[in-house]
Amino acid sequence: MEARHRSGTSGWLIRPRALLALAVASAGLVGAIAVTGQGDVAVASEHRPVFDDDFGAGRGTGLDPSKWLLDGDARNGVQDGQGRLVVDRLASTRKAFAEPYGHAEARIKVRRAGGPWRAFGVVDKYGRVLRGDVETLDEDADPTSGREFHTYAIDWSPTAVVWSVDGKAALKLTPAEPGLPIALVLNLATDGRRPARMVVDFVKVTAGRKPMPLPTTPAPSEPAPPSSEPTTAPPTTAPPTTAPSTTAPPTSKPPAGKPPTKKPAAAWKAYTDYKAGDLVTYKGVTYKVKEAHTALPGWEPSALPNLFAKV
Q1: Rounded Cα–Cα distance for residues 84 and 226 (Å)
Q2: Phi and psi for 76 in degrees, rounded to 5?
Q3: What is the pLDDT of residues 246-293, one digit of tens each?
Q4: Which of 164, 220, 236, 276 is surrounded by the most beta carbons within 10 Å?
């Protein structure tokens, strides 16, 4: 029987590139590794498992609700009975990981736009996209065809998040707010070109109070075994977990006889922080924001009735 759930990493050489402003995701792009001095490197035993799902339940079984929050109903994320998850909506880990150092891996097959966070992403514990400076480490370490499985890894520290694919470092994020607890996202938001589905072999996370050793071993190549996977319709992409709605503070009443002044609606834009009650326009229609979130490409108001209501 063919061995499954194998992964590895390779030696990383971070080359200086122009830093770009990027909101990651995607449920993600979460994760980081600090390139530390020898005195900071810890042995692997100092990290403990904090999350593990190999999707080994029977065919048609939904996601474990104690581990995952799925934007959709149970049919939008089902296990195929052969150790894989087939998902057509964004899914995020239900609980944030509070440890300052961690390593997450997922074996995924999905067709998408460039950027490994568009397959395996990170958000903060409130579901907000991490902001900061981004450095491309290797443009060739980011396969996007969706024809084969690839092992995505996210390594994080208080000051950096690094994505690698099949053992090759691809992208580094230096967060604007260091040390935020993070959650993982199986992300289907990809600049408006939403993939019909994503197939996931496993997701696992280890974390601790010290950094992991620097990667040294390349990932073994492994052909994807055949599987019967349910056919799904193209979804409307929805955002990761957002902060619970809070009661707005009281406001003073306007003087008698003068109607309250309403803030004019602005055109909807990606990578914008919206709060509940904001008004936006999209394709000539005005929408009211229902929940606070950070907008990503593909999250247009017309596609997300759970976040926007027509006015």
Answers
A1: 11
A2: -80, -5
A3: 333 334 444 455 555 556 889 988 778 888 889 999 999 999 988 777
A4: 164
Residue entry with tokens 């408006």: 192
One domain, residues 51 and 185: yes
Query: What residues make up the domain containing 273?
Result: 266-310
Among 108, 99, 117, 120, residue whose Cα is nearest residue 49: 99
Among all chains, which residue has been given the structure tokens 């009211």? 288
Q: Tell me the two tokens of residue 46.
A: 């100092």
Number of independent structural domains in the chain = 2
Residue 187 three-state SS = coil
Global confidence as pTM: 0.57
Judgement on whether residues 36 and 155 belong to the same structural domain of the protein: yes
The CATH number covering residue 52 comes to: 2.60.120.200
Write the CA distances from 208 to 36, 80, 127, integer angstroms.
15, 32, 22
